[in-house]
Amino acid sequence: MLMMPVLDLQFGERIVTLMAALVLVLQIAMVSQRWIVLHIRIFAVQSLFLAMIAATIAWYNHAPHIYIAAVLTLIVKVILVPILFERLVTRMEIHEEIEPIVNVPLSVLIAGGLTLVGYVVAESFYRPDAPGVGHNALAVAISLFLIGFFTMINRRKALTQVLALLSLENGLFLAAISLTYGMPLIVELGIFFDVLVAAMVLGILVYRIRETFESMDVSRLRRLRG
Amino acid sequence: MLLIALLLIPVATAAASYFARRRAAMEAVNLAGFGAIFLVAVALGARVLAAGTVSLANGFFYADALSALVILLTASVALICASYSIGYLRDDQQSGALGDDASGKEQLAQLRMYYTLTPLFVFSMLFMAVANNLGVMWAAMEATTLASIFLVTFYGKITSLEAAWKYAMIGGVGLSMALFGTLVAYYAGHNLTGSDALSGLNWSVLAQHSAQLDKTSMRLAFVLILMGYGTKAGLAPMHTWKPDAYSEAPIPSAALLSSALLNCALYGLIRFYILTSGCLGAEYPSRLLLLFGLLSMGVSVPFVLVQKNYRRLLAYHTIDHAGIMATALGLGGALGSLGLMLHMTFHTIAKALLFLCAGNVYQHFKTDQFSEIKGSVIRAMPLTGVVFLMAMLAIIGMPPFSLFQSEFLILRAAFDGGHALTGVLFVVFSAGVFAGALLHVGGMILGPGGDTPVAAPRPWRNGSLLALASSLVVIGFWVPAPLFELISRAARVVSGQ
């Protein structure tokens, strides 16, 4: 048993790296996604992996408060928000495809470039001697943040912009657990509460935009100028 | 106790308004609630003057002179807006601006939303000012956006949905950057205080150890925070949501957004400025603040000059003043900080007053375009006209009004500190805004009169107007000694002396 920890840590590190890579792949899949329901489900799966990363880090670093963050991610981002948004999609009877502003191949290429930027930025925070697992995830976290930003600009439909904002927030969550093993619990609670309320508020707003304009195309929102 | 009361009263007010059945009950609850908040804020100010700092629950809540000043300003504006909105919303109800259903149920639901969300909005601003933990402070800032989105969509027009969408999206991206910055600041200090100790993100703890924070991380953190809270403060180029949100929200909400919320966003920025300058020295944050501050002042000039809509004019004016305050923070030192705190106080009074005047004009003429206001404001509604003109002169920095003093102080800080270019640009941009604002608003108020209807009496609105106007005049000549003491202590918190 006494020899186990070293091996264990390496194993944990690999699991986290693998799942972080999957999270990144899903983020890029979101960039190229054309159907809105699929977009929501990819977001749910991505959040599930995030919760698993959090749980793994909590296990290997003996940081019990991260379990709570993992459970909250599971409840809010894997279950509540996707259900809320799928019901919204059903109620609004959206059948149209997402039309990105930049075409799909170029979007994926840009996402790849942003990943590279993420790795360069994360380099300055790299500490090979630091104990515990999860430091490799920071590069992925910054990439998620940047790609989420790009997706927001690249989308015309209101709901997909909200999803991009939430996936950008996923990047922040990953950064928090990989940099500092999460924020203090009270802060995590505050952030999750805000995310939940924001998802509801934005959902209502999307619904009202859809009702008023008979479209979610935010490029039609162009009356206010100057 | 005071801090608990400060946070509990607005929540209780919101709950009571939500369950109230009649309009009169909601109005009474709101007025009483905001009155109580104001008294608590005054008491808190007195306590801070006597004891230095007030903290509670192991330092989870923390108030020094800076927080007490921001709280006092927020509570004052909230009280004035509460009494103004009684008259404002009654007028809206009568004139059919809230939709004209026969049963009045929808109107009541709309009023209930307003009277519930406004206390929650104020609650989140007060919470932000007393939260010691920087993460909790962020959560409160995000809550201000969430509480105010549906105030922006209050009238349910196509344009108000557009404004709310811009507000939500730009604010959302900005605040996610602020969260990233908070996180990096936590990282910069987490080796000092232990990784998951609750106090690791407490501002008062970090400020004590600011010299030992990780320098590279703080550099990144400050940029992210400046972009993040700068978005909420409306610094250029993240200012684009502001004119839309201010011109679509009901006037009392717009007044809160443009004075109290601006202060809160700057408050967040100031907290991080103190940490950053303690860690890296003042020069690094100063340069960034001067850049964004002057940019905001410069960007607002052309928009003020060609503006056709007086509510949007006021919004660009707020962007200009956010720039002035960021510049003052960037100049720093004893003079710059004192100028900043005085300017924050004076701007809050004057800008809230301007929005209330604009509300009177809007409800009388039913338009927010300069060109469609036929006849002069001063003949149709003498009181509003006079106060509007006076507040306008005050805000563009005309002596003898108080904003002249604070801007003069900031200018002196610029030239004394060797920032001659900043000083010159400051004067040029101020002159541009001065000309634009005087041209448009002066024309609207004093212009040739067409037919001049006599305005109906509006006790609630004009009473609020008079109260705020007299405090603007008084404060131009005489700042009460305790208030000045609070302001100068807040300035010392900012400058770290």
Give the key terms.
heterodimer, A: 226 residues, mainly alpha, globular, B: 497 residues, two-stranded antiparallel ribbon, 79% helix, 1% strand
Structure description:
The complex is a heterodimer of chains A (226) and B (497). Chain A has one domain. Chain A is an all-alpha fold and 226 residues long. Chain A is globular. Chain A contains 7 helices and no strands. Helix content of chain A is 77%, strand content 0%. Chain B is mostly helical and 497 residues long. Chain B has a domain of 208 residues. Chain B contains 19 helices and 2 strands. In chain B, helix 3 packs antiparallel against helix 4 and helix 16 runs antiparallel to helix 17. Chain B starts with a helix and ends with a helix. Chains A and B meet through helix 5, helix 6 and helix 7 of A and helix 5, helix 6 and helix 9 of B.
Record the SSE blueprint.
The complex is a heterodimer of chains A (226) and B (497).
Chain A lengths: L3 H29 L3 H26 L2 H29 L11 H20 L13 H18 L3 H23 L4 H29 L13
Helix pairs in contact in A: 1-2, 1-4, 1-5, 2-3, 2-6, 3-7, 4-5, 5-6, 6-7
Chain B lengths: L1 H18 L3 H29 L2 E3 L4 E3 L1 H31 L9 H26 L3 H19 L5 H36 L9 H6 L6 H19 L7 H8 L2 H30 L2 H23 L4 H22 L1 H33 L11 H4 L1 H14 L6 H15 L3 H27 L12 H19 L3 H15 L2
Antiparallel strand pairs in B: 1-2
